[in-house]
Amino acid sequence: MGRRPMTQGITVLGATGSIGMSTLDVLRRHQDRFRVVALSGNSRLDRLLEQCIEFQPSYVSVADERSAESLDIELQRHGLHTIRIVTGVEGLELISGLPQISHVMAAIVGAAGLRPALAAARAGKTILLANKEALVMSGQIFMDIAQRHGAKLLPIDSEHNAIFQCMPPVHEQAINWRSLGVKKILLTASGGPFRKTPLEELRFMSPAQAVAHPNWSMGRKISVDSASMMNKGLEVIEACWLFNCTPDQIEVVVHPQSIIHSMVEYIDGSVLAQLGNPDMRTPIAHALAWPERIVSGVGSLDLFAVAKLDFERADFNRYPCLRLAMDAMRAGGIATAVLNAANEIAVQAFLMEQIGFTDIPSVIEERLARMPSSPSDSLEAIFKADEWARSDAQQHVARLMN
Ligand code: NDP
Ligand code: MG
Hints:
Blueprint: E1 8-13, H1 18-28, E2 34-40, H2 45-55, E3 59-62, H3 65-77, E4 84-87, H4 88-96, E5 103-106, H5 114-122, E6 126-129, H6 132-148, E7 152-155, H7 158-166, E8 182-189, H8 207-210, H9 220-228, H10 230-242, E9 250-254, E10 260-266, E11 271-275, H11 281-289, H12 303-306, E12 312-313, H13 320-331, H14 335-351, H15 359-370, H16 379-401
Parallel strand pairs: 1-2, 1-5, 2-3, 3-4, 5-6, 6-7, 8-9
Antiparallel strand pairs: 8-10, 9-12, 10-11
Helix pairs in contact: 2-3, 4-5, 5-6, 6-10, 6-14, 9-14, 10-13, 13-15, 14-15, 14-16, 15-16
The chain binds NADPH dihydro-nicotinamide-adenine-dinucleotide phosphate and magnesium ion (MG).
Residues 157-159, 235 line the site of magnesium ion (MG).
């Protein structure tokens, strides 16, 4: 193997979240290899302060001036006088393009992560992409910007990381995988907490029940997306962009144990799978060190304890959000941005107990039916579609509340 790389600088966007915390846990084990140059947080300032004390970054990014002032008082109290505090979207964009970093962990949840991820792409960084919503919103534009500026996209989403590991070892993003013998992608899904819930009871499911994922511990938004399988829908779209394929080349396989993280089938009948304990530190460590391997803190997979792996077909009656997402990808244009925005509003309303669990697909479906027809040929068009879908979905939520 080649020489050991020098210390590499990294920005962790969304450091205070579930992926952010797992990332810092891996980085903590490799301080000789990585230096945390910048961190970002939003509402959890206490946690961000602890992270600043431990990692002593050069920059920290918070939502606004008010948060900056209160964090500054605490940093000074702890004798941390050299950390520069930046704010808002501009702050996030700044720390995503710093000359002293090579890697950006994109782990902000939702559409808020798009602009900073694009800034990292424009700066030609290696982007460790957890924030799938960014790609769902801006697919082609994001991929084009990354390619133009020599940015590398490494998937953190466990399924996409698994697919990446099972694909032939060529790393141009726009490759035609079919010419290399790839037949299809088998995208695994756990089925979430409501896999066995009687269909007529789904509408009574509470936020607490929806976020209680059987295998993974994650942020609240993605946990609800896993219960509705919108998460798998967003992942189909994400896979289409990352692996240059169509929804018809992807098969969703419900695999309740979450031990196989996805598979790639070849024309000779071979099916390659990546397995491991369901712990995001494995894909995080894989992407951080790629193409090398480093320890992640994840224990060995005990196949004897797992004993059995099950597979089922995904049922669109149980998971209408999966169908909506696949249809939006086929429709193209602004449809996936509209889908994503409507879903974000619906999930937030569900978490605030303003609408029921089965209202989520209705709010999304109605936006897709009503959306103005428009190409997604510019970022402006995408942000406009996002804004329209949010306000239209908000009105639907208001009607449901009355
Ligand atoms: P969390 O909710 O745990 O964390 C989200 C992070 O984003 C937090 O740091 C949060 O700050 C920050 N954030 C939230 N809103 C904003 C905003 N408006 N502006 C700036 N920062 C903001 O989510 P997860 O870590 O679970 O997920 C992050 C991303 O990774 C999502 O896109 C998700 O789909 C994806 N992902 C997650 C997986 C998982 O296992 N958790 C697996 C695969 C993908 P704060 O907490 O301080 O408010
Ligand atoms: Mg996933």
